Task: structure prediction
Amino acid sequence: MKDERNMALVPVKFRFTTKEKTVMIAIIVLMVIGIVVTWVNYIKFTKTKAEHEFAYQQYQEAIKKQQEEQERKRQEKLPKLTEIGIENVNHIYRSDTKRAFLTFDDGPSSNTNQILNLLKERDIKATFFVLGSNVEKNPEVVKRMYEEGHFIANHGYSHVYETIYQSPQAVLDEYNKCNQLVRDAIGEQEYDSHLFRFPGGLVGGKYADIKNQANTLLLENNIVHVDWNVLNGDSEVTNPTIEYEMQRIQETVGNKQSVVILMHDAQAKTATVQALPGIIDYLKNQGYEFKNFYEIIK
Result:
C-alpha cells in the first residue's frame, strides 16, 4: 500500500488556462499603470505646489516692493528740516547759478487753479504760502497742489495783524492751526512744511518786536521763515495791470542770481494770473531755472 502521509507532501502543480493567464497579465499591467499614473500625478502635484508657492512668494515680493515704493514717494513729499535746510534758507538769496522761486501768498482761491494749470503746462513747480482760512474754503485746491508736486508753505491762519501779532505764541498758534488744516486737506497727518512767511514780511512795521520774538520761537519749534527779494507789485496798487506787474518784475530782478518772487493767488489777484505767462517767459529768457522749496528744505 502507498504511504498516504508521503502522498500528502507531494506538491500539486497548478496549471493556468490561457484565459486565466491573460487576466493575470491584465491585472498586473493595470497595477503597473496605476502605480505609474499615481507617481506621475504626485510629481505633477509636487511641481504645481512648488510653482504655486514660488508664484505666491513672487507676488508677496512684488506687493512689498510696491509698498516700499509708495512709502518712498510719500516720504519724498514730506519736508524734513535739517541743518542743511536751515543753512539753505539762510542763504536763499545766494547762488552760483541763476534760479527763481515762484511763490504765491494768501491763497488758495479759484485763481489758484488757473495758476496750477499754467504751471502744469510749463512743467514748473512753485511754492504756495497758504492761509488757513482759505484752506478751509478750498481744501481740494490744496490737495491738487500737493499731488502735483508744489511746495505748500505756511502763511498763518487769519492774516489779521491784530490777531496774529498779539504775541509770539499767537504767531506759532496760527502756524499750527494752518498746518493742521493743510494736513487734513491733503490727507497726510505727518506733513509739516517747516516754512513760514510772516504776513507783511518779517522786517519792520508796527509789530517788528513781536515778529522778531516770534521768529526765535518758530526756530525753536523747527520752523524757518523766508521773505522775498523780487515782487510783481500785485499788492502795491489796487488794480495792477499786466504791464505794471512786468515792469515791477524787471525792476526788482535786476542782476540778482537767486530770486524769491512774491506774488499772490488770492481771489482778487486776477491780474497776476494774466501776467504770469509773461513773467515766466521773462525769467526764462534771462536764464533763470525754476525751483521750489522742496530743494531747499531737506
Summary: The first strand starts at residue 99 and ends at 105. Strands lie at 99-105, 127-130, 151-154, 195-196, 224-225, 230-231, 258-264, 289-291.
